[in-house]
UniProtKB/TrEMBL annotation:
Protein's UniProt name: DNA-directed RNA polymerases I, II, and III subunit RPABC5
Family membership noted in the UniProt record: Belongs to the archaeal Rpo10/eukaryotic RPB10 RNA polymerase subunit family.
Main location (coarse class): nucleus
Gene transcribed to yield this protein: RPB10
Subcellular compartments: Nucleus
Coiled-coil stretches noted in the UniProt entry, renumbered to this chain: none
Amino acid sequence: MVRTLSCVPIETASDNKDTPIIPVRCFSCGKVVGNLWESYLELLAAGVDEGDALDKLQLKRYCCRRMVLTHVDLIEKLLLYNPLDRDRR
């Protein structure tokens, strides 16, 4: 039996390059944190410290703070590896 994986085409992801790959919910408590990423980056760009930015976003639990604080946005690096751009042999 051969199993195949269905994949979403990369073009749909590359249309919107500002889309972060941050988990939608906290792994520990389940609070929604995915919508706070852009606000967090804006606060950091404004010169606010990380802890103060998390406080302004009302992230009080350390598990939720960890989700935002330790996230590494890899979408730009992942989009460089588009398998559809490779020459097919």
